[in-house]
Amino acid sequence: MPIRCTSCKENLLSEDNFTKFPCPDCLKSEITRCMKCRRKNNIYTCPSCGFEGP
Ligand SMILES: [Zn+2]
Ligand SMILES: [Zn+2]
Questions:
Q1: Of residues 6, 53, 10, 54, the one with CA closest to residue 32
Q2: Number of domains in the chain
Q3: Radius of gyration (Cα) for the chain, nearest Å?
Q4: Residue 15 Cα to ligand 2 middle (Å)
Q5: Residue 23: its pLDDT value, please?
Q6: Ligand 1 center–CA 31 separation, angstroms
Q7: pLDDT of res. 48
Q8: Which residues form the domain of 42?
Q9: Cys-Cys link to 7, which of 3, 14, 42, 45 (CB 3.0-4.6 A)?
Q10: CA geometry: angle at 40 spanning 8 and 3, to 5°?
């Protein structure tokens, strides 16, 4: 299963510099973010509940 950045949809399989954490709102979905999006503080949207966070 491909791992994709929740913010930019970049494939992260070749990257090991990303973070993975459960959605802080519903805790059901895993949010993955690449280093680029973390640095830019890109918004992510939870696919389950639509929660948006920086
Ligand atoms: Zn990204
Ligand atoms: Zn959520």
A1: 6
A2: 1
A3: 10
A4: 24
A5: 96
A6: 11
A7: 96
A8: 1-54
A9: 42
A10: 30
